[in-house]
Amino acid sequence: MKPDAQIHIKNLRLRTYIGFNEAEKANKQDIVINAWIHYPAAKAYDTDDVDNAVNYRSICKDMIAHAENHRFLLLEKLTADLLELCMAPDNVTFAKVEVAKPHALRFADSVSLTLSATR
Predict the structure, then answer these.
(1) Distance (Å, rounded) from C-alpha 107 to C-alpha 115?
(2) Count: domains in the chain
(3) What are the distances in angstroms from CA 66 to CA 25, 50, 78, 109?
(4) What pTM value is reported for the model?
C-alpha cells in the first residue's frame, strides 16, 4: 500500500476585510490560515514528476489572491471559499481549512472556524 501525501500550509498570515460591524468593514484585519490537503502521491514519488503532484504553491497563491481581493461578512464564507480552492485539483481526496481571526475576542488568542471536504 502506498501512502497518501499530506500537505500542510501552515500559518499563512494575511489581511482581509472580514466581519459585519462598521469597524470591521472599514479596516482590514489579520487572519491566519491553515490548510491540510491529501492526495495519493504514488505517481508523484514514483516518477519524480511535478505534473503528478499537487501544486501547493499555486493553491497558496490562489488563497492569497482570494482573501486579499474580496470582502467577507462571515468566517464561514471565507473558509468555504478557501476549502473550494484546496479541493480544486482533481487528485485531491481530502482537504481541511482553518481560518483564525486573532484579536477577535478580548480575552482569547483568536477565534477560528474549520471546514473539511472529502472526495
Answers:
(1) 24
(2) 1
(3) 17, 24, 9, 25
(4) 0.93
Which residue segment(s) compose the domain that 16 sits in?
4-118
* Residue 99 neighbours by CB under 8 Å, 6+ apart: 31, 32, 33, 75, 78, 79, 82, 112, 113
Statement: residue 1 has pLDDT above 80: no
CATH number of the domain at 80, please.
3.30.1130.10
C-alpha separations of 70 from 13, 39, 67, 103 in Å: 16, 28, 6, 21
Across residues 55-84, what is the average pLDDT? 97
Average pLDDT of the residues in 63-86: 98
Strand ordering across the sheet containing 29-40: 71-72, 4-18, 29-40, 94-102, 110-118
Question: Could you tell me how far CA 89 lies from the centroid of its own chain?
Answer: 14
pLDDT of residue 18 exceeding 80: yes
pLDDT at 3: 81
